[in-house]
Amino acid sequence: MSDDVAGNGAKNGSTGTEAVKAGLARMLKGGVIMDVVDAEQAKVAEDAGACAVMALERIPAEIRKAGGVARMSDPEMIMGIQDAVSIPVMAKCRIGHHVEAQVLQALEVDYIDESEVLTPADEASHVDKRAFTVPFVCGATNLGEALRRVAEGAAMIRTKGEAGTGNVVEAVRHMKTITQDIRRVVTATAEERFAIAKEMAAPLELIEWVGQNGRLPVVNFSAGGIATPADAALMMYLGAEGVFVGSGIFLSEDPPARARAIVEATTHWDDPAVVARVSRGLREAMPGIEIAELGEAGLLQTRGW
Amino acid sequence: MTAADAMRPRIGVLAVQGAVSEHEAALADVGARTSRVRDAADLEGLDGLVIPGGESTTFGLVAGESGLLDAVRARVDGGMPVFGTCAGMIMLARGIAGGGAQPLIGGMDIVVRRNAFGRQVHSFEADLEVSAIGQPPMRGIFIRAPWIEESGPSVEILADHGGHPVAARDATRIVAAFHPELTDDRRLHRLFVDGVREAVTEHKEDSVVGSQ
Q1: Contact B182/A10, CB-based, under 8 Å?
Q2: What is the pTM of this model?
Q3: Segment-wise mean pLDDT, segments of 10 residues, chain A, 305 residues
């Protein structure tokens, strides 16, 4: 892209506004965001109908296996993926790592995922996301956590699930918890909302907004453990506005077919005949992990505060 | 069809992926009935169609394989009014400048450039003078937005930004590179739905004349 094209809008308009940051998440709704580790996988994802890709060095299941400290990906690899596809490219920074986020913004990634899949850099604070032009997506396991992230400037939320397991049970738990929390806030009286704000450790004005509108203030996707078309459709049924699929695609036996099937199942989640048709003959899904086998120390979802 | 039905036309919103509910809310505000279009059968009985923002490559792949794209193209060629925003504008173009061969619907004699204003860090909002709307200006929200690079003689350019056309119409077909559905300004949706109402009324008069 030539210099006179890039930034043309900014000369006569305002960049990085809330409407612009949350707006991109609205355009992603009903879609599938796929983890990819190189340009070739990114093309497979785009050709399967992904609405965006998440560029990272290793998919969560591999990060789990490798152990050690997981960090932001090599900029070279992110740039290779940006050159390969025309759809939005997201990338992950460590929780609280302001400078990794600045680097990703300098690379002009389209969304930053401040992610528990990487090793946290700060045990007390997340990044102040309001200070950035690039929008952020953050994980959450309940309404209070989601609203803390929104208060910090997150323009999109995803349920955390348990990444790299191929087991959807935690994604289901987190989506249902958020829905139940919202229902509780909606039916609460004005007086009760003060107590709920304190209990959930979320700003009162956001609790009141949820009470009036009956939903999160930003788009909410599901992530962490989705491995089949039926898993994706299940998360849509439970109220997700779209899905992230990490290890589920490229650790399966036939990634292009599975990627395509998950896209179809996400669009047609309420039509079981379509989900049945696209689920046929996909060969083996990724091997799954029972959550109890991970133990407390093996959980990624408890990272972040 | 009764006169009351013509006042509340049935508008479909293409619902492969993207900002569907935002358009449904905007269309309801200007008095239209809405339904979601995921399969060719969903087009039956519609007076008009909105193609929302989202990822145009996803629309093309998912709707292309199911035959929905061909069915929409047949209706658009048959004169059904359409309104496309952002990815919707791309889908209604006849071609993409410097771009690959992704599946399109066509219908507007325009060539667009995808992601023309740059990546998300360059996404912006700005006031726009829209000729068919008048004052005050509309607040245009541009998200990885395209612009119109070429247009044919039948196309009326409605708005420019930074020297590039960003909204246009051709009879009852309207396209915008920005997202009026993300604001409370309903003037562009009203312009579209008023066009649909006229088309419905004319069609009714035609069929009355034809039956005599």
Answers
A1: no
A2: 0.94
A3: 43 88 98 96 97 92 86 96 97 98 98 96 96 97 98 98 94 98 98 98 98 98 96 98 93 94 97 97 87 86 88
ipTM of this complex prediction, to 2 decimal places: 0.94
Q: Which residues form the domain of B10?
A: 3-211
Cα nearest neighbour of B66 on chain A? A264
Contacts for B196-204: CB closer than 8 Å, 24+ residues apart? B196/B9, B196/B11, B196/B32, B196/B47, B196/B48, B196/B81, B196/B172, B197/B6, B197/B7, B197/B9, B198/B172, B199/B47, B199/B48, B199/B79, B199/B81, B199/B172, B200/B1, B200/B5, B200/B6, B200/B9, B200/B47, B201/B6, B204/B1, B204/B6
Counting the structural domains of chain B, the total is: 1
Q: What separation in angstroms does the CA of A123 have from each of A94, A119, A268, B9?
A: 11, 10, 41, 56
Looking at residue B49, what DSSP letter applies? E
Across the A:B interface, residue pairs with CB atoms under 8 Å apart total 157
What's B57's domain CATH number?
Answer: 3.40.50.880
- Work out whether strand B156-161 and strand B164-170 pair parallel, antiparallel, or are unpaired: antiparallel
Tell me, yes or no, if A176 is annotated catalytic: no
Are B19 and A268 a contacting pair at CB < 8 A? no
Cross-chain Cβ contact A86/B183 below 8 Å = no
Chain B residues with CB under 8 Å of A18 CB are none
| Nearest C-alpha neighbor of B146 from the set A269, A99, A5, A39 | A5
Contacts of A17 in chain B (CB under 8 A): 124-125
pLDDT digits over B79-105, tens only? Answer: 999 999 999 999 999 999 987 779 999
